[in-house]
Amino acid sequence: MTRVRAAALILAAALAAIGLVLIWVARLHADRYLYVSELGAIGEPTAEVFRWAMTSVAVGAAITALAMPPGSLTPRGRALRAVPPAVVLLAAAAAFAVASQVTCTRYCPLPVGPGFTWQDLVHTTAAVVGFVGASWVMLQVASDARLKRLARFSLVAALAVALIAATGGILSLLRFGTELGGLLELTATTVALAWLVGLSLLLATETARRPVRRPEPAARERRAHQRADLPPARY
């Protein structure tokens, strides 16, 4: 079971990395400055690549959540321990899966004003929930006192994603600095997906290092072996 978990976590890391590469491929082939969600908007030439990218990310996150060994992540603090990291990450994966299939309309209008559509609302809500869930897991992992390397990596990633994404979101709401806002969102996405790849790989390494527990023989069998090892009685 240990080997299966480690292999699944490596697969999850590969899927997250593929998703990150596909997002960059789509962005580099875009004909103008875009926010990440706009890459998947209906009518955009990068829509299909974006769909596959987000699907890979969602599947990778779900596999990581399901394959991580129980007790491998132990957040400190009542609030951070309220919901296990695996559950939060699985919820984020589900949100990303929705965002991958329900993409926004062209130019991804905000869910206010004349350009409002329910499709945009669903996509935006799912994307926000996914990023918030991923950021929360980063904070949970950052508080883990046992895996210090992973904790430091997660803390830096959480702070970077929060600051960069918040700045990009404010620019989007103000409809100002679209080029800078799109670049900031892409940077935040890159950091978040790089963290997911690192999380999966580090968990795979920790899982592979765990000793394999073999089932002990039953008490009757142990006694039988012990009797067999005794020297024969002399009369």
UniProtKB/TrEMBL annotation:
Pfam families named in the record: DUF998
Feature: compositional bias, Basic and acidic residues: 212-221
Keywords per UniProt: Membrane, Transmembrane, Transmembrane helix
UniProt-annotated stretches for the region Disordered: 212-235
InterPro entries: DUF998
Transmembrane segments: 49-68, 80-101, 121-141, 153-174, 186-204
Protein name: DUF998 domain-containing protein
